């Protein structure tokens, strides 16, 4: 290319750059791009970002059931360890049963003896009633003898001394009858109104046996719920006291999330709103679904060990956070188990913000166990056997 051609192309470019129409067109394109980007951002905010609240200040929570002994004793067996799964009612720890067995035998004998004593008292009442009947016969006989001899005294056919002796016999028979009635009433007071099994003495002995039987059963410590063992501190041969923590059981089925939202994010969060959750454990590959079940009654700073003194002169405003409780789907937890304390990222769909802010009264307990329900019933059944064995064939 010649120098004249190069110079000509440069001149043409300069003329094009100075063309107002082309420059306006370029500016319009740039402006259109900015407007389009702004419109897209506005639409995203209007239909997406304004309809959700997100926080990564969220952690998995769950029940941590502290297992402790209800009686004192020496540990003779430990049947589980950390990380192992246990089922509700499974035996986890055994204590030395010697002392409890001795006490159980003592109360068993006391119950049997109480039943026999009440039986004896009942028989005494029957004997006292028979004595009263006999004294009544004696009184009637003495009165009849006196009535037969009174006409003879009037006819001077009988000595007055003999009649006086008969009057004394009537008085003695009356006194004997009164004494017999008093003894019968005293005997009847201990057994009257109830049968042998319901007698207060038997009931007291039965209560002592029941307490001893339950204490003996508590030497075998069972899991109140199903879950995984953590923080096992009990050791073989250790002497433990009632209430001493032995281990922790963590059920990993009914977990929840406590998401700590900033106070300026709570305006549209309502109970019942759907939630999407991702965890650091599984990343974006696994998405959980839950729902809001409640908002905390206060900020974290209020319930801290040393609450902030906001009334001081050097106060600095700090954005507070309120925990929002989110329930997880148990089916998803079964497929992808989580652990308490793990981090999570939650996104609450606030499209429908007409739900309640305050939770209503709970219609069912958040946690319960039935593994101890049969203990008292079994104790009563054992007491009934002892009572029946000592009632005798006549009762």
How is this structure best described in words?
The chain is of the alpha+beta class and 395 residues long. Among the domains are: 65-98 and 217-251, OB fold (Dihydrolipoamide Acetyltransferase, E2P) (Beta Barrel); 102-199; 256-349, Efflux pump adaptor protein, beta barrel domain (Elongation Factor Tu (Ef-tu), domain 3, Beta Barrel). The protein is built from 7 helices and 14 strands. Strand 11 and strand 12 (283-295) form a beta hairpin. The mean pLDDT is 82.
SSE topology sketch:
Blueprint: H1 3-17, H2 20-47, E1 52-61, E2 65-68, E3 73-78, E4 85-86, E5 91-95, H3 98-154, H4 160-189, H5 200-217, E6 220-222, E7 227-230, E8 239-240, E9 245-250, E10 256-262, E11 274-279, E12 283-295, E13 321-328, H6 330-335, E14 343-349, H7 373-391
Antiparallel strand pairs: 1-10, 1-14, 2-9, 3-5, 3-8, 4-7, 5-6, 7-9, 10-13, 11-12, 11-14, 12-13
Helix pairs in contact: 3-4, 3-5, 3-7, 5-7
